[in-house]
Amino acid sequence: MLHGSRQWLTGIGTAHGHASLHLGRTRLTLRPATPADLADVEQLVHDNMRPYLTDQGLSWNSEQFRRRFQEADNACLVSSAALVAFLSLLHADDHLHVRELQVSTDFRGQGVGTWLIRHAEALAGEHGHKPLRLNVMKHNPALRLYRRLGFRVTAETPGGLVMEKRLDTTGHPTL
Ligand SMILES: CC(C)(COP(=O)(O)OP(=O)(O)OC[C@H]1O[C@@H](n2cnc3c(N)ncnc32)[C@H](O)[C@@H]1OP(=O)(O)O)[C@@H](O)C(=O)NCCC(=O)NCCS
User: Is 119 a domain residue?
Assistant: First the structure.
């Protein structure tokens, strides 16, 4: 069962200190998402995913997105107040599900996506070394990123793939 009632990302900025990433002179800060972020997050995910939805003959479902936002464990990566990226996790009994990994176009190709996946891996390592799992559409270039980070295809869905990365007990990937 997948649920977001565990809120690991909510701990950012408390026990773990502020998680931040420097891109040149720009400091990006990862913080828990709040309901006030919903409009900006929806805009980012909508803009990013529109080509893939169009490809599949699907349209954007705002109501579903908002419901899914509320049930997940979410974080925003921000530069000053501006949203740069969004990470959304769901906690299953046997794995950590990366539901959303979304980076705004201006910040792509600079290691942000890699850094966010590494962050999710670190959390999974701290909480029992559960494998990470995600769904990706077959034609999404993100597939290459996930392969590079050690994810392997474990199943196919209509139009998509399920990918998984196992961690060993030190939190490192199992190759
Ligand atoms: C996928 C995504 C999160 C990667 O974020 P990022 O910050 O650019 O990632 P990084 O800089 O750490 O790594 C870049 C990698 O992303 C991959 N990538 C994904 N989409 C890409 C795109 N549109 N153009 C170029 N590279 C892309 C490349 O393979 C690249 O891998 P490489 O470094 O081995 O060449 C980002 O492109 C994005 O938000 N895409 C739109 C939303 C999406 O598809 N999310 C994934 C849903 S499963």
Answer: yes
CA dist 71 and 118 (Å) reads: 22
Residue 12's nearest CA partner among 71, 84, 89 is: 89
Q: Is the CB of 113 under 6 A from ligand 1?
A: yes
Pocket test of ligand 1: the residue of 108, 135, 153, 165 to mutate, having most ligand atoms within 8 Å of its CB, is: 108
Quick check: is 138 in a domain?
A: no
Please report, in tens digits, the pLDDT of each residue of the chain (175 residues total): 555 555 666 555 544 456 899 999 999 999 999 999 999 999 999 999 999 889 888 899 999 999 999 999 999 999 998 999 999 999 998 999 999 999 999 999 999 999 999 999 999 988 888 899 999 998 899 999 999 999 999 999 988 999 999 997 654 555 5
Atom of ligand 1 nearest to the CA of 140: 44
